[in-house]
Every structure is written in structure tokens, then in C-alpha cells.
Design a protein that fits this description.
binds 4'-deoxy-4'-aminopyridoxal-5'-phosphate, alpha/beta, single chain, Aminotrans_II_pyridoxalP_BS, 4-stranded antiparallel sheet, 7-stranded mixed sheet
Amino acid sequence: MSIFWSSTAAALTPYVPGEQPAEGSMIKLNTNENPYPPSPVVLEAIRRAVDGNLRLYPDPNASRLTAAIAARFALTPGEVFVGNGSDEILAFAFQAFFDRDQPVLFPDVTYSFYSVYANLFNLPFTTVPLDGQFRILPADYQRPNSGIILPNPNAPTAIGLPLRQIRELLEGNAGHVVIVDEAYIDFGGESAVPLIAEYPNLLVIHTLSKSRSLAGLRVGYALGQPELIEGLNRVKNSFNSYTLDRLALVGAEASFMDEAYTRSNITRIVQTRENTRSALERLGFSVTDSEANFLFVSHPAMPAPVIFRKLREQGILVRYFDKPRIDDYLRITVGTDTEMAALLKAMVEIL
Ligand code: PMP
């Protein structure tokens, strides 16, 4: 341990992100990126911004992007907060809404950044077990808490929670913020955005990293009633007076000008996902119901870490989690049809 570290830094267990190998060196199915490029409209807007005024600071309030997002969801700009990826918004939300008196609740199998942020901000948390089929049971969240956070669909299970169950969570926890992290919602889940008008305790978080092919731009946004958005702004403005850089602002705004492009990629990915699911099932895999751009799979005849290693040797990177309950599973991002054909061919050789 370094003599320079504070006791806080020494106590931290940082998040370990999925591997990012040298570009083009592997078939990369390990971090749920979109296999298709961003819309040409986005790329053109960024090119123009590169030739424009990068010497000037960006709009601290991200007004144009905020207005475009508000228009897209029939909300007001006061109901929208934008950030550098949804990870940054999650960090702000943990500080804005959760406290030390009661634990924040989240599923025992979920996005691993939640426990990292709880530890970083010194917030107590309780993990709520999924049931035997990896489902979230809203009744289990009726216990003292300072707030709830869960992804819908959940990651890495890919399983979605129906809207009526989100309602149950919101109604059972009226005095506390319920954060629904909809990073993968565009691939088939039921979005909670239409519930925002009804529930002042609901915050929905979206990202441009998945369905909009912009993981490299780092843009996410949160939607909720103005009081919650104000809470996020207080934390953010205490941390950084500029919201996004100029390229991210214009690129993200342009993405909302080309919805047809995003929709057609989603359709392709969902089709590929279902074809891949059937093919994996024919090879003996069990595959959870996916409403996301990834598949959560296990094989009765071969341990997941062995499949992971053998795929890696063949240049295919998927995600393995060395964690209780899910160490028999692999999470496989849905790539192009060509990438999935290579994956299936490799699986046939391995099994
Ligand atoms: N939430 C979930 C459930 C995720 O899987 C991810 C992606 N790793 C994120 C949030 C963060 O996405 P980003 O910061 O790229 O918006």
C-alpha cells in the first residue's frame, strides 16, 4: 500500500471494467457495445464541431442537448439532466439521494458499479437476492432503506422487469428515490419514463453508449421530476461547472435528430440476438430471456471459465464473472451476424 494514499483510497475496491484489447485484435463481445457505427448525422455534427470553436468553453448548461432530450420524451428541460456517461450520473445520484441512516437496496446480482459507489461514498447497502430464475421480486424491497437502484433489464442477467412491478416498487417506497437504470431498455424492455409524471420519487437513467453506438462519446442522461434533477445539479455543480465537452454535446444532440437510424440498428440486433439464442440452445446452452443486447448463458457440460478461456484463445472475448451464483455463466454481447457466426463456430469446436 502506498504511503501517499488516504485511508479512503486505501479502503477502496475499484470497479474492474471489461477488457479493452487493442482495436481489431479480437472479436469483442465483452462490454455490450453496439457493433454498428454511430449515425452519419452524428459523425458529421462532430466533424463540424472539430472545425468550429473548440477554443471556447462549452455551454455549461447543455441547453440544446437538454431541450432535444426533453422533446424526445415529451418532458420539460427541467426534467432532464445530462452527464458524462450514465456512470457519472450514477455517482451523482448516490451522493444526491442516498444517506447513511438506512441502506440503499439493489439486487445481489446486478451492475457492479452500484456497490463500488456505495463504498466510495460511505453509504450502507443491502443486496436483495434474485429468485431461483434470476428474477427481481419487488416484494423483497419492502424493508427499511434510503433508496433503491436497479437496472431494467437487469445486467448481467438480461431479464426485464414489467412496468407493473416497477410501479409496485415506487408505491412501496414513496418517501425514497427509486432509480431505474435503463441502459439496455431500447432492446425490448418496458420503459418507466411514462411513470415520471405520476411518481416524484422515480429517476430513470439512460445512456447513449448502447442503442445509439456512442460508448466512446460518454453521454448519459437522467429523467425525473424537477426536484430530483435539481438534486443532481447541486452535486454536479459542486464538482464540475461544465457538463459535457463540445464534441459530446453536438454529437449527442445529433443522435436525437436521427431516430430512424437507431431504430433500424436495434431491430437488427434484436433479430441477431434471437437467432443466436436459438443456435446456442441447440448446442445445449441454457439462455435467460433477454430484453437486452447481450445473452446470459451457461452450459451443463463445460464450466464457464473453461469456455471463456477457450474462446479467448480463438480471439473471441466474452465476459466471465468470478462471483457467487453467476460463476457458471457467461455474458455475451450481441455483435454482427458475422461475429455471431464466428462465435457459434468456435463453440462447436470447443464443446
Ligand atoms: N448501467 C448499466 C446497467 C450498465 O451495464 C452500464 C454499462 N457498463 C452503465 C450503466 C454505464 O454506461 P455508460 O457509463 O457508458 O453510460
